[in-house]
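A sample copied in:

***
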Amino acid sequence: MKNIKSKKAVCVMSGGMDSTLSAYIKKSEGYEIIAVHFNYDQRTQKKELECFHKICNKLDVKEKYILDLDFFKQLGASALTDKSIQVPTSGLEDGVPVTYVPFRNGIFLSMAAAIAEKEGAGVISIGVVEEDSSGYPDCRFDYIKSMQESINLGTKDETNITIDMPLVKLKKSQIVQKALELNVPLELTWSCYQDEDKACGVCDSCRLRLRGFELAGVNDPIPYK
């Protein structure tokens, strides 16, 4: 018989397509979802939080954590948190883009680990995508695995946490297809880096999302400018 700990999953959920699908996958596997959302003064903070609440309602989430990480604004160094740095709109480029927020996923996972230990959850779920991402170093498989090891070294002996990254090796088109299979409410998700009313369609995140829908042969249900 499975330990009850293994049936709780702390899901880091931005309100975006990838993290939403990751949460739906855990739900389909029989896990109780503990939803965690971070406000870090990102440009689309209000929209992302709105999407998070709507998605949690669809998932019938009973336990939610909304954490404010104000220091990211002071840190700056990213177009997502520093309004003086423009969000690139000319197309996908090689290397780490200016939308990278320094060590964001490391900080998110550390906070999620604290919640998992408190809640007795055996799994943290995060929607990182390695191959078809924007080139963020904190989305790499090896990095997340190393964080798992560090988390288990730094928690109680009886705490044993697995970091699940079900999308890490998928392309965006495969993510769209999987989301459709699981009836994920894609119309409630948001990916745009810079606008909250209608998605811009030209930032890196919008381009990746639109290309994924195009290759999957379906229309994206969110509004674009």
In short: The chain has seven helices and five strands.
